[in-house]
Amino acid sequence: MRAKEILLRVDLIACEDTRKTGRLLEFLFPSCPRPPLISFYEENEEKRIPFLLKKMKEGKNVALVSNAGTPLISDPGFKLVRACFENGVAVKAVPGPSAVIAALTISGLPPDKFLFLGFLPKKERKKRKFFESVKDLAATPLSPTVIFYESPFRLKKTLTLMKEIFGGDVLVVIARELTKMHEEIIRGSLSEVLPSLASRKIKGEATVLFHL
């Protein structure tokens, strides 16, 4: 309810995709005047910041919306928030869906310590280094539940690499399309999960969790 109130009250909404956010606002406020939208995504983020800062310094309130999940968490916004602090502009968080936390709470894996890696590198060599660093950390008292995002096109290859590095007995949880219509949770050892995905076409970004 707080998010709805703020989206209707601000002077401008910066969003990754004006079409998607526009549809959301039409659904939430079918009969109310809605704030104007301005596109704000990774490729134009730096160009938009001076304009948004100018508006905020003039006393305007700006909301930042990502397509799915929470802004800044593997989504645009970090540079804008940093620029706001550097320019004395107040920033407030409006809690909303976050795939990292949502997946952790339903994974059944230890939630007391977790390491979020964002999107892994696309190249296998760099991805292997990430996993080997995690393996080293697992041998310490700081051993965390590891969480990362993966593209549906690379998911199977990434899981195969994990099996090679960590072994087939490692329990993995794959949370796909969380909080959406086609939400799915896949849970099992790498040796169990990989064959079950072999003939499937994966759709939607996945949140992957494991603990060594």
Mean pLDDT: 95
Distance between the termini: 39 Å
CATH architecture of the largest domain: 2-Layer Sandwich
Give the strand content: 15-25%
Question: Class of the largest domain in CATH?
Answer: Alpha Beta
Radius of gyration: 20 Å
| Count of extended strands | 8
Strand order of the largest sheet: 4-5-8-6-7
Spans of 5+ residues with little confidence (pLDDT < 50)? Answer: none
Any idea what the shape is? elongated
Molecular structure report:
By secondary structure, this protein is α/β, with parallel strands linked by helices. The chain has two domains: 2-86, Cobalt-precorrin-4 Transmethylase, domain 1; 99-211, Methyltransferase, Cobalt-precorrin-4 Transmethylase, Domain 2. Helix content is 40%, strand content 19%. It contains eight helices and eight strands. The protein has a five-stranded mixed sheet with strand order 4-5-8-6-7. Helix 6 (124-138) links the parallel strand 4 and strand 5 (145-150). The model has no long low-confidence stretch (mean pLDDT 95).
